[in-house]
């Protein structure tokens, strides 16, 4: 006997839909985890459309003073060179303008 939608109970259908949503969300999350670092590493260089210089990639620390400064410098670098950063900022500013707030 073939399985049809009418032969499956409502609770099973909602359970299947719930699992499908969870699997889709997990797949989307994993895709973001894979795509962002790939784009950051191999994509186009970050476009500087701002009125400031972007942070440079810090070199590996060799002294105790450099070791203490490294986390902050690396964080600044990652903030400026995050994958799709310019695209995300453009979308964010368009959203602000569309709701009536100036960026």
Question: Which structural class matches the secondary elements?
Answer: mainly alpha
Order of helices and strands: HHH
Helix content: 55-70%
The radius of gyration computed from the alpha-carbon positions, rounded to a whole number of angstroms, is 23 Å
- Give the number of domains: 1
DSSP strand tally: 0
Mean model confidence by pLDDT: 81
Describe the structure.
There is one protein chain. The N and C termini lie far apart (61 Å). The protein is elongated. It contains three helices and no strands. The mean pLDDT is 81. It has one domain. 62% of the residues lie in helices and 0% in strands. The protein has 103 residues and is mainly alpha-helical.
Q: Mind sketching the topology for me?
A:
Layout: H1 10-42, H2 64-80, H3 85-98
What would the keywords be for this entry?
mainly alpha; 103 residues; single chain; elongated
Task: Describe the structure concisely for a colleague.
This protein has 103 residues and is mostly helical. Helix content is 62%, strand content 0%. The model has no long low-confidence stretch (mean pLDDT 81).
């Amino acid at each position: 006997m073939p399985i049809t939608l009418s032969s499956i109970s409502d609770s099973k259908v909602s359970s299947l839909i719930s699992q499908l949503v969870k699997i889709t969300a997990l797949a989307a999350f994993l895709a973001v985890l894979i795509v962002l670092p790939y784009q950051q590493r191999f994509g186009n260089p970050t476009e500087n459309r701002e009125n400031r210089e972007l942070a440079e990639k810090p070199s590996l620390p060799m002294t105790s003073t450099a070791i203490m400064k490294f986390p902050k410098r690396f964080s600044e670098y990652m903030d400026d060179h995050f994958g799709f950063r310019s695209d995300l900022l453009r979308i964010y500013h368009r959203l602000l303008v569309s709701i009536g707030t100036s960026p």
